[in-house]
Amino acid sequence: MRFHFALTLQALWTGVCQAAMQHYPAAWGHYDVCKSQIYSDEGLTWDYMACQPEGADMTHYLKVSLDPPNITCGDPPETYCALENPYMCNNECDASTEELAHPPELMFDLEGRNPTTFWQSTSWKKYPKALLVNVTISWNKTIELTDDIVLTFESGRPEQMVLEKSLDYGRTWQPYQFYATDCLDAFTMEPKTVQDLTQHTLLDIICTEDYSRGYVWKYDKNVRFEIKDRFALFAGPRLHNMASLYGQLDTTKNLRDFFTITDLRIRLLRPATGATMVDENNLSRYFYAISDIKVQGRCKCNLHANSCVYDKEKLGCECEHNSTGPDCGRCKKNYQGRAWSAGSYLPIPKGTANICIPNNIAPVTRVCDNELLRCQNGGVCVNNVRCSCPSDYTGLLCESPRCETELGGCGGPNSGQAPLTPPRLLLLLLLGSAVLREACC
Question: What does the DSSP 8-state code read for residue 106?
Fold first, then answer.
């Protein structure tokens, strides 16, 4: 009796702790818990749920590379002029002096310092040859974007630029968005904004003119790739209906892949000129300078982990549900009793864990894993492994009234249950046949 009471208290305490960890309303489906202990007819057991890591600043874990590699200013030292004032030429870049150097790492350092730190390219001294720079950001890990990508330029914002993504660690690239002062002239595309998109055109690649103004105005240093505005097409303007978004991500692979990346590439094609004509007598006015890049996201763990660790300069999911791999993309050894499957956001708010099960698990305990053998009489299939039955029923599929095991059976005057009917006998025969067939094979 004491043991039963202790188990009940432990289950209640686990539920209280789980509720305390929930940062958002349950209807949002926050998915921060992979499993919790519950008390059932079998005693204290695990209840498995879909789970994912919290969103984080992913710039702490990236590697950056430039193409061409010698495009950073300072070797040899150079003096730069202000775009808006060609006679103000007091900005020096010298790679051999720490205070005057502008290496690419300064795109990701702590902001708020004075003076501002930034990466800077060489100037456009080879005009009219194009000043082309590729800034490639790599994680060596699949991540899911959770907020806008924001680039902050210390120079004028580029007049032509492309943001690209890779899903295969940089082997292939596809455009995310085009940016230009004149989209038709630069990319033969009609200009659009994210506000022009709908649920049906969300995956369209657009060219926008919103972020390509030439001069550095006080509040116009940023270039965005709007993630949250795209989320809002399903979740509402304040993202209040995350259940709708999660449902779409769960059922539409192309949509989920759209927000998933392994690498980003910023292709800088034409610097800000601030005018229709380039001043060939003062090409030191034209260059690229980036002071900050923000990328918010989470490790992709296929809804099988709620934490991701950075060890030996590499990100990896701490996999649950008997899964393993960098993205929890396969079942652990000896847990391949059925094919691996990603977790599911549905049903909201806990989702479906789709755990990997042991190889030697008895086939008879996997009854609700079979399309023909669903739980009966209001029973609920738990993790595609067993049926959780209502109080009045028992059996592998909740097919038997509990009163059948009681004195007097179900035919007694106080049982409230009818005797076993032929359809129920047929169900038992079907169950027996399926179990024998699985055991033989």
Answer: G
